[in-house]
Amino acid sequence: MTHVTSAQSVRRRHHWRRDVVELAALFTAVAVADAVANMIAHGPHGAFLLVASAMALIATATFHTWWARRHSHAPPPSGPAGPAPAPDAAAGPAPVDTALWRMRTTVRDEPGSLAALCTTFAAHHVDILTLQTHPLADGTVDEFLLRAPATLQAKDLTREVSAAGGSGTWIERADAHDLVDTPTRVLGLATRTALDAAELPLALRQLLGRCTIHSRPAVSVTGRVAGESAPVEGVLDGTEMRLRDPNGGSITVERPYLPFTPTEFARARALVELDARLGPRIPRSHDVLTLPEGEEITVRRADHDDLDAALAMHGRCSDRTLGLRYHGPVGDANRYLSHLLSPRFGRTLAVQTASGRLVALGHLLWDGDETEVALIVEDSWQRRGIGSELLGRLVALADEARCGSVYAVTQASNTGMVATMRNLGLPLDYQIDEGTLVITARLDRAAERTPEHNDQRDRHEQADR
Question: How far is residue 294's CA from residue 384's CA, in Å, rounded to a whole number?
């Protein structure tokens, strides 16, 4: 802050020594002037002395002016003896590369345990962005979102936390999605679940972190009882929780590396209860497209209401088309449809003609912690771009759900499916085993897609909303 003071308000001290010096200088100047005047007036070289005095005066004034200007703009002295320049407060501290971490550790439930962790973080320049506490019977689980220097390794951070009293420490890299605070994130997941029944498995996965979710129906596709249903209140058993599926059967969530806390179990159960209260629902969006030949088709979400139309499409498909899609006896194809059309196991897109006839289906299936894509197009509508359109939309849905990859299982002779996967413009991995081909597309480079794929994803997201 700069202080400005008026000159009239400043009372300077009076120095009598300065007055004496100035008076002596005045008398000396008068005496010198008188001596010079007498010398000029009475001496033989008076005129010459007068000109020389004038030139000396001019030279002295010029030198004084040059000297004053040079030293008034000279930079401050540098070096060991000179004072260090003051730091620029507006510039701020020098930028430091940082990394985001999610950490969970268990501490004793006593005063000062959390303070010891915070002191350790501060000593290593680690910033705590968010903190959640999960009370247990014999301690407290603290979950942190940290911003740490990039040079600080996970093992070093874990070692320091253990020295500060933390036990059972778990740590992994975080990203920008984790910067949202927990209440906002839970409300967003609840909203997505309320809009679409297919969102429940994804919402549970995003709520609980890296975990595997299995939906087990009460009756399998073969007609057998799949297993006992979970009780209404659910079951929490260390690294596994079982919840009752509102559609029948159970939802099992597994996380082998980290036990679930009662707080997480309560949140997961609340999402399932919300899904049960809202009942069956699916976004009713339609996107009308025109094929190169001029026919109009409609792409929309499908569910159990489309079972009869899907069965009729199966009846119009050749045995080869059904065999390439279901990899088994053609007679078993119809039994899988009820499972595939359930929003609990994924999302299904249907393609219908202007007359309303179903001619293609695309499935995005939640397979534990992996995601599978599958397509079937009626024979007379193949090779018109319908498969590429469906696959692009399904991959966009997987990308929106933050899936790391998607895979398709087909036969090595299915050149159409191979070409469709290659048209995605994503990194692909191929595995062949006795004629069965598994093609995996990695979505970690989804930003490098062509503009056509990005526009396609944007159109689908707008239609889905």
Answer: 11
Question: Cβ neighbours of residue 334 under 8 Å, at least 6 residues apart?
Answer: 311, 314
Burial class (CB within 10 angstroms; exposed 0-12, middle 13-18, buried 19+) of 40: middle
Position 126 confidence tier, pLDDT thresholds 50, 70, 90 = very high
What is the residue-wise DSSP string for 287-301? EEEE-TTS-EEEEEE
- What is the rounded distance in angstroms from the CA atom of residue 347 to the CA atom of residue 395? 11
User: CA 103, CA 108: separation in Å to the nearest integer?
Assistant: 16
CA distance 372 to 390: 13
Return the amino acid letter for 85: P
Instruction: Enumerate residues 6+ apart whose C-beta is below 8 A from 107.
Output: 113, 114, 117, 139, 140, 142, 165, 166, 167
Q: Which residue has the higher pLDDT, 58 or 384?
A: 384
Domains and CATH numbers, the chain: 98-179 (3.30.70.260), 182-278 (no CATH), 286-464 (3.40.630.30)
Are 142 and 107 within 8 A, CB to CB? yes
Exposure of 324 in the CB half-sphere (CA atoms within 13 A) = 17
Q: Pick from 420, 416, 411: which is nearest to 388 by CA?
A: 420
Strands 286-290 and 240-244 turn out to be: unpaired
Residue 18 CB burial class (10 angstroms; 0-12, 13-18, ≥19): exposed
In this structure, what token pair is assigned to residue 302?
């499908």
Span 54-108, pLDDT tens digits: 677 677 767 767 766 665 544 454 444 445 555 555 555 556 788 899 898 999 8
The pLDDT score that the predictor gives to residue 9 is: 43
| C-alpha to C-alpha distances, 251 to 31, 66, 266, nearest whole angstrom | 114, 90, 15
Tell me if 253 sits within 8 A of 213, measured CB to CB.
yes
- Residue owning tokens 């008188």: 34
d(CA 456, CA 462) in angstroms, rounded, equals: 10
pTM of the predicted model, to two decimals? 0.61
Query: In the chain, what's the furthest Cα-to-Cα distance?
Result: 142
3-state secondary structure of 465: coil
